[in-house]
Amino acid sequence: ADSFNTVIDYCGGFCGSFVLDAGTYLYNPYVIAGFHLAGAFKEEIPVDASAWGGICVVYTSDEGISLRLGMGNEVNESISFALPSALLPISKNPNQKCLSWDDFAPPGWALDAPSGKEASEKLVSIEFHFEEETGTSGSFNIIRVTKNL
Predict the structure, then answer these.
(1) Residue 15 DSSP SS3
(2) Using H for helix, E for strand and C for coil, what is the string for 73-93?
(3) For residue range 77-131, what is the model confidence (pLDDT) as tens digits?
(4) How confident is the model at residue 2 (pLDDT cuts 50, 70, 90)?
(5) C-alpha to C-alpha distance for 104 and 47, rounded to whole angstroms
């Protein structure tokens, strides 16, 4: 029941669309799409992915994507969600972007947040984060995610 097989068959990847609305919040609205690397639905099992060297993503997107390395809710919350991230630019046609773990950095405001290399050693999820002003809409298709060897 929790499978995305139908979506993957339809899109040739993991696709979706969004319309952002901040409602009563004072910050820019966002939406996150992603997946866990191990375990069943809702399990958070850390994986040492450091030997991968990083990741390559083939994607399309109407908006820029902040590609983030999640370390599980408990760790993410303890660092105020200052997850190491890298930018995937807008791409209307399928584009491959390969990133080393060193390409992922925490936000500039974060003190003592883990680097991409540190996060890769206890990686739980890969997240595609869209954050823009209210009224922004777009669509995306994550066609393939692989190791960057």
Answers:
(1) strand
(2) HHHHHHCCCCCCEEEECCEEE
(3) 999 999 999 999 999 999 999 999 999 999 999 888 999 999 999 999 999 999 9
(4) low
(5) 17
Q: What is the pLDDT of residues 22-44, one digit of tens each?
A: 988 888 899 999 889 998 767 89
3-state secondary structure of 11: helix
DSSP letter at 135 equals T
- Alpha carbons 18 and 97: distance in angstroms, whole number: 22
What pairing do the DSSP bridges indicate for beta strands 125-131 and 91-100?
unpaired
pTM value surpassing 0.85: yes
Q: What is the rounded distance in angstroms from the CA atom of residue 17 to the CA atom of residue 74?
A: 28
**Cross-strand bridge partners of residue 14:** 142
DSSP category for residue 9:
H
Three-state DSSP state, 22? coil
Tokens matching residue 7: 């979506």
DSSP states of 24-85 as a string?
T-SS--EEEEEEESSSSTT----B--GGG-EEEEEEEESS-EEEEEE--HHHHHHTTT---E
From the list 88, 80, 81, the residue with the least C-alpha distance to 55 is: 88
